Amino acid sequence: MLTRHLKCHSPARRHVCRCCGKGFHDAFDLKRHMRTHTAHLAKVHGQPASYAYRERREKLHVCEDCGFTSSRPDAYAQHRALHRAA
């Protein structure tokens, strides 16, 4: 928890929103922020979400070190191995 808290004081924002460019210290904060975009699409543009209510959505794997994102667990594991090797 201390490590997570210390990220709040760092100027670097590793997790950047693809829609608006806003940066976050933590992958969870970015995921929570992304919900504002999906709500906006439905409310303002009349585009419903591409998933049904309570339907399980595709899981995203986000690298805490660099922000790399993948929906494939094998690609994420391969990416993480590169960090460990460096």
TrEMBL record:
One of its GO terms (biological process) is epidermal cell differentiation. InterPro entries: Ovo-like (IPR027756), Znf_C2H2_sf (IPR036236), Znf_C2H2_type (IPR013087). The keyword Zinc-finger applies. One of its GO terms (molecular function) is zinc ion binding. The keyword Nucleotide-binding does not apply. Keywords: Metal-binding, Nucleus, Repeat, Zinc, Zinc-finger. Its main location: nucleus. Residues 15-42 form the C2H2-type domain. It is found in: Nucleus. GO terms for cellular component: nucleus. Coiled coil: none annotated. PANTHER family: TRANSCRIPTION FACTOR OVO-LIKE PROTEIN 3-RELATED (PTHR10032:SF220), ZINC FINGER PROTEIN WITH KRAB AND SCAN DOMAINS (PTHR10032). This is Putative transcription factor Ovo-like 2-like protein. It comes from Tupaia chinensis (Chinese tree shrew).
